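Posting for a labmate who doesn't have an account.
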Amino acid sequence: MHQTTTNTARILVLEPDDNVRPMLKHNLQAWGYQVMMALDAENAIQRTQGGQDCFDLILINQMDQTIDECRAIGQQIRQNSGVDSRAPIIILAERYGADLEGQDIEIGDHEYVSYLEDGQQLKRLLQRLCLVY
């Protein structure tokens, strides 16, 4: 019999970097989240299409794409998966100046860009948007 924990938030993570993926997954799990990893947009869309895998938040590493491209990918995943349209999308910015470091900026309805200063900043943003009980 398969049991699911209904009070544990689940995060879909798009992380193409083989070096970052294990560490990010470990940290998210240590913070109490269930994690579903995807290597790229195609993989994420395939795994979530039709609601076959549910999640509460989408986390995208910007790697080699614009913020707008990442945002469109997140919106497409959210729409195709049948998940709540209010499920937050967080884009981890890859390159930015010192003036943006440490900021989390809302760029749309339930859509954010995080200019990470450290891992604790991501943890605080996740706790604000996607509670773990």
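Reply:
Got it, the structure tokens are right above this. Residues 67-81 form the longest helix (15 residues).
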